[in-house]
Amino acid sequence: xxxxxxxxxxxxxxxxxxxxxxxxxxxxxxxxxxxxxxxxxxxxxxxxxxxxxxxxxxxxxxxxxxxxxxxxxxxxxxxxxxxxxxxxxxxxxxxxxxxxxxxxxxxxxxxxxxxxxxxxxxxxxxxxxxxxxxxxxxxxxxxxxxxxxxxxxxxxxxxxxxxxxxxxxxxxxxxxxxxxxxxxxxxxxxxxxxxxxxxxxxxxxxxxxxxxx
Length: 213
Description:
With 213 residues, the protein is mainly alpha-helical.
């Protein structure tokens, strides 16, 4: 049998590729990760006592949107980085935009506050545990997304690992918002972002090993 005929025979006998499989794989990983992070938050930290009042405050939704927008941008980056030959281009701006908006809000708040109130606005009451708690809550989504991406074909493992970690951190932050009493943009645009950066750094560190072909 000629080589060309053999290749054609193999191609004809190959089962059709389910193009929806990657989307289902990612959706399952995100659903499991977010559900587990929310359950961990509720069991270990608890909902904030005034949650029924807090959800009527615009700032509650602004900080939730901050985390959700970062998560959406990180998800898009992760999806594209999971496929070889797919360009990222200007999509990095989607990750930078909510961060820049949060920092702009922080600048306005700190500029309007008296000098003696600026540090308390930045530190709040929970700065020493906030980032660590977010990093811990990110673990379920981080592990689930590592599983999802490992089944794909990433060719930039370090960057892909960082995107997975940022997505996990953002997902955990959304869950953490239901517990955290801090409402100042100076606080959450700093410490929430640091909490997301921790799993992103871990992902960048282990990406080459986890995503090795």
